[in-house]
Write a structure and sequence with these properties.
280 residues; alpha/beta; 13 helices
């Protein structure tokens, strides 16, 4: 009740507040979150994933070698059942980000035992896994976002920047130009909606750019060099940074495991496109 009262009065309430509002229009954040995430149209704005992604991709990404211990040396405990049940519930929603599983990770780690034999090898494997993931996730994953934002800030002709399939762009990097440049975060907007949404936002402007990962092959069809006579959305590559891996673009359900890894790694990089929208 205290949380509902604070949410209604402080975080999500209107300018004026009364006890009648608390009774008649309470803000129950967990319920609103559940209702929001049951709407497929809302989830399409963030991107959708196969239902098995949490169990087969996201959870092993956190657990590393401990994933094997979960099968060969588990401790059947309340913590383990709570973690697996929570992961199963989250898997029912088609939008699945790895960070959603963070509460389950310590519960699972407390439910496995180190092997009695080969313990040193396992510890070495564990250290190696964390060093590798530390470099991949701490340096290369979404590593080009800050550089791309710095580039946008340095270009006086850019007045609108749209971002797709990246982390939310840090607008503070724009400095004084934050008031001049309109930043639109398209998040993981579904492919069928993307071109219409971009053109609706850009209109007839000629000073807008789209920042997106090179691994997003869906955008290739809109490149002007591919089809100069195309109508609708037209993209021209303007600038890029190579040291950028986009693990959020791992669409295993659409492309398969090996083709997806080859695309994300082989076409790594973040690209700034000039955007034009022409009528047919």
């Amino acid at each position: 009740m205290a949380a509902i009262t604070v949410d209604t009065m402080v975080y999500y309430g209107r300018d004026s507040f009364g006890l009648v509002d608390l009774v008649q229009h309470p803000v129950i954040a967990p319920l609103n979150s559940l209702l929001y995430n049951t709407q497929s149209a809302n989830l399409a704005l963030h991107g959708t994933h196969p239902h098995w992604q949490h169990f087969l991709v996201n959870l092993p990404q956190f657990l590393g070698p401990a994933t094997i211990l979960l099968f060969i040396n588990p401790i059947f405990s309340t913590q383990l059942f709570a973690a697996l049940a929570g992961t199963a519930i989250l898997s029912a929603f088609p939008h699945q980000e790895a960070r959603f599983l963070l509460p389950a990770v310590p519960l699972i780690f407390s439910s496995v035992q180190l092997p009695q034999h080969g313990r040193r090898l396992w510890i070495a494997t564990w250290i190696g896994f964390n060093c590798l993931l530390g470099v991949l996730m701490g340096v290369y994953h979404q590593g080009g976002v800050t550089e791309a934002q710095a580039y946008v800030r340095s270009q006086p002709d850019i007045s609108q920047a749209l971002w797709w399939k990246t982390y939310s762009p840090p607008t503070w990097i724009l400095g004084d130009r934050n008031e001049e440049i309109v930043t639109v975060d398209l998040m993981g907007l579904g492919k069928p909606l993307l071109s219409d949404r971009i053109c609706a936002s850009v209109g007839q402007k000629t000073n807008a750019v789209l920042i997106a990962p090179r691994s997003a092959t869906f955008l290739d069809q809109f490149r002007v060099a591919e089809d100069p006579a195309t109508s609708g959305l037209q993209l021209t590559e303007r600038w890029s940074v190579r040291n950028h891996l986009n693990f959020d673009d791992m669409d295993f359900g659409d492309d398969g495991i090996l083709p997806t890894i080859g695309r994300v790694v082989g076409r790594r990089g973040l690209v700034v496109f000039d955007v034009r929208c022409s009528s047919a």
